[in-house]
Amino acid sequence: MKSAATVERKGAGITEALSSLVAPRAAPPDQRPDDGQGGSHVHELERPHHDLPEAVVLINLFDVDPEDAEDFKLAWAEDAAFFKAQPGYVSAQLHQGLLESHKFLNYAVFENAAAFAATTEQPEFGPLRRVYPDSAVAHPHLFRRLHIPRICVGEVA
């Protein structure tokens, strides 16, 4: 199981990855990519989106060592149970890559970005990140559904 020291040491820990979705995070000046106009590029997901009124989807792609797959699924189930009990939670589904894949994908829906942010601000949230195996590296992103005429429904064109 993951300790707080492990999360900090890895730098790609699950707490840090999810926190980056709801709180601004600036890289040190020497690590900021140049945007070609003398400024630095801040990735869209690093800005808070608490004001988005529509449903948001958390897609979290995990890299997990094969020997940790069962521990990962147990940790995810505990984590998902916490999320399920929070206001604004709609649903979640865990997927596993086929064949020899070491990837897992979590698809979770929240009523809005504020509900997702409030969930991650709960005191119980941080300790749950530490139950994941050391090999689990998260790559989370928040999305909104798009409306493409005659193709898919969504709130944003």
Helix and strand run: HHEHEEHHE
Straight-line N-to-C gap: 43 Å
Q: Count the domains.
A: 1
Strand content: 15-25%
How would you describe the shape?
globular
In the CATH hierarchy, the third-tier topology is known as: Alpha-Beta Plaits
CATH architecture classification name = 2-Layer Sandwich
Average pLDDT works out at: 77
Write down how many β-strands occur, each being a DSSP E stretch of 2 or more residues. 4
Largest pleated sheet: 4 strands, antiparallel
Radius of gyration: 17 Å
- Which structural category fits the helices and strands? alpha+beta
Number of helices in the DSSP assignment: 5
Task: Look at the structure and give the CATH class.
Answer: Alpha Beta
Low-confidence parts lasting 5 or more residues at pLDDT below 50?
Answer: 1-12, 23-48
| Helix content estimate | 25-40%
Q: How would you write the strand order of the largest sheet?
A: 2-3-1-4
Structure description:
- There is one protein chain.
- With 157 residues, the protein is of the alpha+beta class.
- It has a single domain, classed as Alpha-Beta Plaits, CATH 3.30.70.100.
- 27% of the residues lie in helices and 20% in strands.
- Strands 2-3-1-4 form a four-stranded antiparallel β-sheet.
- It is globular, with a radius of gyration of 17 Å.
Please sum up the structure shown.
This protein has five helices and four strands; from the N terminus they run H-H-E-H-E-E-H-H-E. The protein is of the alpha+beta class and 157 residues long.
